[in-house]
Design goal:
Elements (H helix, E strand, L loop, with lengths): L13 H19 L38 E3 L5 E3 L1
Antiparallel strand pairs: 1-2
């Protein structure tokens, strides 16, 4: 019986891909964030799955909110943030 690395994700190139995608997913989170919302960015549940990766972009101050998200229902039934 062959044993595999059970419990963590194959990480070939994923750290750089994670850093490249951070800005988009962080922005999506911030659009709908409420008080006491938390953003955790990694690619799995274990320490080997990105929990200890340094993301300099996450250290930048966010500033105050620009306003409340307002949604408008379009004819196709989808919501659009304005």
């Amino acid at each position: 019986m062959k044993l595999y690395n059970v419990g963590f994700t194959k990480t070939d190139g994923i750290e750089q891909r994670s850093k490249d995608q951070l800005e988009y997913y962080h922005a999506c989170f911030l659009i709908g964030a409420q008080p006491y919302s938390y953003f955790l960015w990694n690619w799995g549940c274990n320490l080997k799955d990105g929990n200890l990766v340094n993301y300099p972009a996450k250290q930048k101050p966010l500033g105050s909110p620009k306003g409340v998200l307002k949604c408008e229902k379009q004819m196709d039934g989808y919501l659009q943030g304005i």
